[in-house]
Amino acid sequence: MSYSELARAWVRRELVDLDQEPPSRTFEIYFRALLVCAKVDGELADNEREWVLGFCAAFGGDDELLDTLRTYPAHERIKEVIAGNPGVQKAGRRSLLFNAIEACAADGNYADGERARVRRMAHAMNVPLDEVEQLEALYEEQRALRQKKAQLLYPDGVPF
Length: 160
Fold this sequence. Notes:
By secondary structure, this protein is an all-alpha fold. The chain has 9 helices and no strands. It has one domain: TerB-like (Orthogonal Bundle), CATH 1.10.3680.
């Protein structure tokens, strides 16, 4: 196992407790769908695309996929994108929505328009509103915990 493969496996285990790498077609569908989710009102902010690209790279996306995603226009409907993969359609829906929340908030703000878009996507994927609200709450809890951790570890500022 190369060091980069080791790093990707570590990220998958640490972030989502996943021991196996998804098939490349699943990767492509998942990350295309994530860009569609993050594109609010026809606008995909650079920092949102960069968040998706960074997440894809860390999770195991190869250079070819990253190059494709860098210019992917994300004009499709979410149901069209995920139609080719039953795993993403069923088991990966909540993960996709959670990651969409993270991508939408990459600029530091999960805006009302983004929230509405994620909820429309959830409805299109048959995920109940109460589950979306739980995912949004989980995101906020993790964000607060990350801030608390940074304050505790670096009360005098980052040492480098």
